[in-house]
Write a structure and sequence with these properties.
- By secondary structure, the chain is an alpha+beta fold.
- Among the domains are: about 1-95, TATA-Binding Protein; about 130-210, Hypothetical protein, domain 2 (Endonuclease III, domain 1, Orthogonal Bundle), CATH 1.10.340.
- It has 15 helices and 7 strands.
- It has helices spanning about 20-25, 80-90, 100-105, 110-115, 130-140, 145-160, 175-180, 185, 195-205, 215, 220-230, 235-245, 260-270, 275-285, 290-300; strands at about 10, 35-40, 40-50, 50-60, 65-70, 160-165, 165-170.
- The strands form 2 sheets. The chain has a 5-stranded antiparallel sheet.
- The longest helix is centred in the middle third of the chain and has 15 residues, at about 145-160.
- It binds a DNA duplex (13 and 12 nucleotides) through α6, α9, α12 and α13.
DNA sequence: GGCCAGGTGGCCA
DNA sequence: TGGCCACATGGC
């Protein structure tokens, strides 16, 4: 492995990977505050093993990913490299074999065009559980543009940041800091009282260790994982499946109540109305165990 | 100005 | 279980 800090570290990608497709997805909102797209590279502040790093991910000449450390992050040992590489592999879902998905999808009426048009797109994840849940709660029942505005307010009020080359890069607020807040304090970001309650409660559960990635992963099935999440106030079936899909990486996570999914299906089928739940279940039957990727690809039709 | 947002909890039958 | 309804405000 190339460990030269100056040249960057090459992270090998699977065959079913296309840098530009993932960039296109990540460029979907100009109001995204958790990373920056600049000169066809992604720059992001991350917290891994209790250390903050500023990283740049770009495309290497051979099509692999190139990881560079920016700023004055102290790389103390080889383990730190491994931690960050693992983070990036998880973030881009590089260790999943998409061939079975593509084999299935090219025969599927709803997906066959999508997998050609977006070939090489990965389910870009939200590795931090608190961020994934909070983003889900914040985004409930509001338009995506406004959701990005609220997230930005939340992050810039309660997160910490690193500055580099005249830009500021944010790390998502930590659960332990949000758990201390009152609803009144948190409502300064101007979201609903209920969402403030939910966010603080989730932060408390994470802080107490009553909610964690290993705990959810240890669930016997997706149904149990979903149940564990929906037992928490503010997390319904949509949020639970969203989190299982973007953070826990359950391939069969399926946010079937998602209005974006409904609109994508409406668009692709040329229907005048949104599909019913029964119609979606029927359309999605062939997607078994690939519902998360199917949903992720169909979302690409919305921007 | 009015409808719609990457929903959820609570109440009711 | 399944059907309503309040929530609560911005985007377009």
């Amino acid at each position: 492995m190339n460990m030269n800090r100056q040249d960057g570290i090459v992270i090998e990608v699977p065959k079913e990977f296309n840098f530009q497709q993932n960039m296109n997805y990540m460029s979907r909102s100009s109001n995204e505050c958790m990373f920056e797209i600049r000169d066809n590279t992604i720059i992001k502040a991350i917290s891994v093993s209790d250390k903050d790093y500023l990283i740049e991910v770009s495309e290497a000449a051979d099509g692999n990913l190139l990881l560079r450390f920016l700023g004055d992050a102290q790389i103390e040992n080889e383990n730190a490299y491994d931690d960050v590489i693992r983070y990036v592999r998880d973030w881009f879902d590089l260790d999943r074999d998409l061939k079975p998905f593509y084999d299935m999808a090219q025969k599927d009426p709803l997906l066959q065009t999508a997998v050609v048009e977006f070939y090489g797109l990965r389910n870009i994840g939200i590795p931090d559980l608190f961020e994934a849940v909070a983003w889900g709660i914040i985004g409930q029942q509001i338009n995506l543009t406004y959701a990005y505005t609220l997230k930005k307010r939340f992050v810039e009020t309660y997160g910490r940041s690193m500055e580099w080359d005249g830009h500021r890069y944010w790390i998502f607020p930590e659960a332990k800091d949000i758990a201390k807040l009152t609803v009144e304090e948190l409502s300064s970001i101007k979201t609903t009282t209920k969402k403030c309650e939910y966010l603080i409660k989730v932060a408390e559960l994470l802080e107490k260790g009553e909610l964690s990635k290993p705990l959810i992963k240890s669930s016997g099935s997706i149904k149990e994982a979903e149940k564990r999440l929906t037992s928490i106030r503010g997390i319904g079936p949509w949020t639970a499946n969203y989190v299982l899909m973007r953070c826990l990486r359950f391939p069969d996570a399926f946010p079937i109540d998602d209005v974006g999914l409904h609109n994508a299906i409406k668009h692709l089928t040329g229907s005048e109305r949104k599909p019913t739940k029964e119609e979606i279940l029927k359309l999605a039957a062939p997607w078994e165990n690939w519902e998360a990727y199917a949903t992720f690809y169909l979302w690409r039709y919305l921007y």
